[in-house]
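Possible regression after last week's pipeline update?

I re-ran a chain I had predicted before the update to compare outputs. Posting the input and the new output here so someone can diff against the archived version. Not blocking, just want to make sure nothing changed silently.
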Amino acid sequence: MFETTIEKEKALLVGVVHGQQSVSDVEENLAELGLLAKTAGAIVKGEVIQKRNQVHAALYVGKGKVEEIISKVEMLKVDLVIFDDELSPAQTKNLQKMFEKARVIDRSALILDIFVRHASSKESKTQVELAQLQYLLPRLTRAWTHLERQRGATSTRGGMGETQIEIDRRLVRNRISMLKKDLKKIETQRDTRRKQREDMFKVALVGYTNAGKSSLMNLFSDAGVLVEDKLFATLDTTVRKIDILDNEILLSDTVGFIHKLPHHLVASFKSTLQEVRLADLILIVIDVSDPQFEKHLRTVNEVLMELGVSESQTLTVFNKIDLMTDQEALSGALREYSDAVPVSALQQVNIQQLEEKIIEIRQSGYVIESLKLEHSQQKFLASLHRTAEVLNIDYEEDHILVEVRVRASALHQIRQESQNRTTH
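New output (post-update):
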């Protein structure tokens, strides 16, 4: 895995106001970028913002602005220049030539660095390395021959006339291929575990990173999930069976979302985020004490849309109400988002109200259905006990009448299976 040491480096942040953006939008993005840099261990010394109709194709910012940034780098003795948007390989190369002493990275590289540090399980390490290699491949400019030790049985010797950069790229592609195969195996194992618990009501905690998802997870389940005031403190999905008001529920805590999350990460974490896709209820946890909470809520909804779960049942949870000094602001937020449940995971405020809402949604998501089966469908009848609550069975002369209570989301599949088995 390629590691970039950012800790204790002095950083300068750079953003561009372009398109439909406002200055305040870019300032908010740079504030978040600063928190990301701090999480990576860097010391932010300043920021630079330029207004442009569109980003400069070769340099992201204009040539004059680059010279201004170089002067600022020298004055502040900065080691690292972080650009808020993802730079193209050409932009990175051109900018690095102009900055002799300071390193140039973008938001994606910074987030990937944080993920490298926080990955702990085999799955998250594999996912992060895959994302990092996919990001680095088009930017490869020097030898990465240490990958040859990781290539396994695949031959990677260069042919006649093959340049070092071509060898390096082939080594990286081979490694990417191996990582994808590893993730397929991991995904198969996850699917097996999911099938074993498909009859349970599944709730997924999602939200902006640092919103308090892990605190809620620990409150409900004593899961021992790391709770730290940093972005992306935890990367691995934690799944626990919990009991809420005498109802058995499967609760999962997923990786936090963030504005402009690199698409390499969204793609690599597909198997982890599958827990969100398959959830019966998604709890969107928002830090309502953050002045940017509405923007964070929009970001979460955008990521959910990207994952294809925008139509799933969701419930917004306004966490950290204990940090709200302005009660009128809290009242205004609750008027605007009337379906949201205000809680404090830390102080355990309104937790029972949240539990009651979860169970209310769970109960409303069930329907009673009557199925007409053939006597030859005994195996399917047995499987019904795993996916539904069987209320009554009547063995008639020509068929079996079964009355079940089942989740509405699973009803279509059960109907299909009963009909498929009837025709076979």
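Follow-up from reviewer: compared with the archived run. The radius of gyration is 26 Å. Marking as no regression found.
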